[in-house]
Design a protein that fits this description.
This protein has 555 residues and is an alpha/beta fold. The protein is built from 18 helices and 18 strands. The strands form 4 sheets. A 7-stranded mixed sheet has the order 12-11-8-7-6-5-13. Strands 16-15-14-17-18 form a 5-stranded parallel sheet, with helices on both faces. Keywords: ATP-binding, Ligase, NAD, Nucleotide-binding.
Amino acid sequence: MKKAIEALKTAEERGSDLLIFPELFLPGYPPEDLMLRLSFLRENRRYLLELASHTKSCEVTVLVGFIDSDEDAYNAAAVLKRGEVLGVYRKMFLPNYGVFDERRYFKPGEELLVLKMGDVKIGVTICEDIWNPVEPSASLSLGEGVHLVANLSASPYHVGKPRLRKEYLSMKAYDYHTAIAYCNMVGGQDELVFDGGSIVVDASGEVISYGKLFEEEIITVDLDLDENLRVSLLDPRRRYMRSQNYPVKIVDVGGLRRKSSHFDPLIHPIPKREEEMFRALVTGVRDYVRKNGFEKVVIGLSGGMDSSLVAVIATEALGKENVKGVLMPSMYTSKSSLEDAQKLAENLGIETFIIPITDVFRSYLDALKEVFAGKEPDITEENIQARIRGNYLMALSNKFGWLVLTTGNKSEMATGYATLYGDMAGGFAVIKDVYKTDVYRIGRWYNEWKGREIIPENVFVKPPSAELRPGQTDQEKLPPYEILDEILKLYIEEGLDPEEIALKGFDKKMVVEVTEMVRKNEYKRKQAAIGTKISTRAFGKDWRMPITNRFREPL
């Protein structure tokens, strides 16, 4: 509400007619099972009315997202002006795919809402409404002849979505000959990141203004709504289109004011893929840490690529003074790994601690020698080392209140190449949705962006290894990451069967082994820390596989 009041003051100073906030702006998106608490619904209503009171002396009309409730709950937008709630629109199309679960919580609306502002008509929609191919856009533009469709949105980020969204809204405006003002949420909420990129498009599909990604801002735009009629006269297709006969509520909010004293005709560029991913990860870490009351984080630095990138992201998100690195060498840790970890920490300016695990590891082996008698060393001893390190990090977290950031990537999470209660121990998994090949790409981009070697070159060129036994490398148990990641993307994100993946040229035996690793390690992922989602299908809300199942995909 405080943010809304500040934005209201700015809009009034600029002479704006309409101020649009994101979807469910007051309660936050997604509220999930807070929705089932009547006290939460009541507080949400109380703050809406309080915000309305701040519009008493304002000429600007406000559209703000909130939860409406009577006999049921609705994802809604309120129309506020001169101290009153003049109308409410209830979202008609509720998404229930991917990370969305709105049908669990909301009932769909059944009525269109049109604001009448002098001779101008504005149709109100919420997020999924505008992604639906036909309605309610058709009824608003064709049936009601609105000049502008206002869309309050909370559209979660994944790689490539800013460009997709921009192109889609441009085509949507062109198809319906109606200007669109699309306001998207910014910031991290648990594993979701909302990337902003709010956009205003005229009736010809031309982008008038495109906001910054991953940054809050107030965009003020003057629209020539005569453009709608001009486009319709030149392209008569809409004359022959039909719309649904939805009931419509018209809310007269008064006439238009003077032309605004402020105009942001800025079209911010969409960054390259690696920068886009990096900024999403930084936003996810910053908001999760800050919103949950932490100040500092701690990371186990191994001298490898994963922990190096996590340290870089954390430093950018929180500042070097709030990031602690811990080096935990064993008898198997190479000298170069220690040097790489120390060099990274120096380049970032973060404080580090060295806490060896060798003596503790030997005490474990001594305590277990009678029970393990007659058994050859295997992965058990490797996992003990990882769990000692996890214990160290959690002890520091308990003692100093530092949040432990885990360093596992998506390739490892998918195949189970990680240790429960070891390197998986922690509060937030920064790169759990980043494939290993992308970890390297983002690291390379970061050094180029900084114009100097922050992540040491040796980290990029040495074979990746957990260093839990002599001469160990990741490729002993996993296919080369360049091949592994492509198989995983086809299986996880595109939903292809092993047989379909093999037909794309991958070795059949390898495909079966990889997909079996994914299946067998579901129990690990269920116990992993949450982390920022940046792909089209992340392990978490997107991926809901049962641990207990006997289904085997044929090949």
